Amino acid sequence: MKIAVDASDLVSDRINGTVVYVRSVLPLVVRKLAAMGHEVRAAVQEKTAEADVPWAVALGKGRMWTQRRFLPWVFRERPDIVYCMAQTVPLLLPNSARLVATIHDIDFLKFPEMYETQNRLLLKLYSAAAAKRSKKLIAVSEFTKREVVQKYRVPAEKIAVVPHGYDPAVFNPELRRRPEAVKEDLKRRFGIHGRFVLFVGALQPKKNLPRLLAAYAMIAKETGVKLAIASGDGWKKEEFEAALRANPARGSIVVLKKVSTEGLRYLYAGADAFILPSITEGFGMPVLEAMAAGTPVLASRGTVLEEVAGGAALLFDPQSEKEMAEKMRAVLSSKDLGRELEERSLARAKSFAWEKTAEKIAAIIAAA
User: Fold this and answer.
1) To 10 degrees, the CA torsion angle through 305, 310, 316, 319?
2) pLDDT tens, 28-39?
3) What is the pTM of this model?
4) CA torsion, points 22, 138, 318, 119, in degrees to nearest 10?
5) End-to-end CA distance of the chain, in Å?
6) 63 belongs to a structural domain
7) Whose C-alpha in 28, 166, 346, 350 is 20 to 30 A from the C-alpha of 359?
8) What is the DSSP letter of 68?
9) Residue 53 sits in the same domain as residue 195
């Protein structure tokens, strides 16, 4: 069987959950499908280090890439299966081609104000097309599956839930067992001294950072703990920047930009707790990475993060600054609770692996 993959996110200047997903799982999926005897070719914009593999085909850059570059290539290639990994699907396909698509979330329908207008309209168009035209849909969580069934009236049996994984060679508890080395590295690399709570994510409205800053201000003086925010720029970052300037505890808040994967490992290892207060998420990769590192996790109740954490995190109402502060205070003031959360995190992380993700995706594509 001939399989064509839209792998445009394999080559990207930005790093987000979707890009990590594509880079982590696609090589494994290709290998597994090839072992089944299938021919796989993945279309990318250009041949960079990430795409320097025999199965990647460079189609060039351009706006509306899936429609203007990928779609004509699909008609030339005439594959049996078209697999789209990032929710953007071709609006036309050869009659002989069957579509398989991953849907990460449909938050743009629930929280339109948290998306740029053009991006939101395109997501709305492509997600509806994916839901309607796919032979099989892959949802990254049960949370997303339920929402897709409800919003698009898709039969539940059409959707397979395949959660993300993580790289255990990168995210593991080894560094937490070497606290002195971690302290020295954090001091040298980031200028961080002493205890801190960690946030990882983009400066976007859905991350709920103004409330996190307000909650942190409630406990900063009594705990003496810093707040480290490891982030990339995001849409409407000005809201965060204004909240930071107005925060009475801003002197104890450290903002770290463009943190490397190695730097992230040390941040997770050195943090007293990791917090993700998002109003909504597609999956919440940092929660999984923190759990794999053995870091106590605090996360938003009533979101997909609750499913990902699976009982391993302290949960709070993301709309309540008071409850957020109480949960941070609880884990920072109790070594026993911290140890319990570490154990829960490590146990929960064992449920996830990119190999498992790839195996399930390959089986879904082969059966489509």
Assistant:
1) 30
2) 999 999 999 999
3) 0.93
4) 60
5) 11
6) yes
7) 346
8) I
9) no
